[in-house]
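hey so i finally got around to running the thing on that chain from the lab meeting. sorry it took forever, my laptop kept dying and i had to restart like 3 times. anyway pasting the input first so we r on the same page abt which one it is
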Amino acid sequence: MTLSIRLATEADLPALRALMARSIDELQTDFLTPEQVEASRDIMGLDTQLVADRTYFVVEEDGALAGCGGWSRRATLFGGDHSAGRDAALLDPATEAARVRAMYTSPDFARRGVGRAIIAACETAAAAEGFSRCEMAATLAGEPLYRACGYAVIEPFDGVAFNGVRVPLKRMGKSIAK
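ok and heres what got predicted. didnt touch it at all, straight out
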C-alpha cells in the first residue's frame, strides 16, 4: 500500500463530509451505544477553518480517500462548523499546545497506517511553527492509536450533543520535538 498525503482544499469538502459520516457510523459502534454514535455527529465533524488555515490533510491510496485529519493553531479542541463552543483565538506556541483535530479513517483503510501518517504530518507541521506540545480530544475508538503514537490521557470528559446525549472523550497530549 502506498499512501500519499496532501493538504485538503475546498474541493475536497463534500468527500470529507461523507468520509466523516461513514467513519463515525462504522468505527464507533464497538465503543458507543447507537444513541451515542448518532450524537457524535453533533460534537464531531468538519471544521472548515482547518482547511482555510491549510492545516488539514487528506490521505489517499491510488486516488481513493483513505482518511483525513489535521492540526490547529487555534483554541478549539474539537468539533465541526456546527458544534457549540468553538474558539478561533490563536494559540501561543511558547505556552500552549497545538490541537490535533478531526481525525477520520475510511473503514476500508482502518489499521493500515493512515492515522499514524496524519499524526506524523500534524506533529511535524506544528513543530515547524514553534509548538512543543500537541493535544487532542480523542474518541474511545481513536484512543489506542493515539496511545501507540505516544499520547497520554490528561483527563476524560464528555462531549454533549444538542439533544443532551453525552459522548465519552479523552483529552490527550504529547510533547513534540521543535
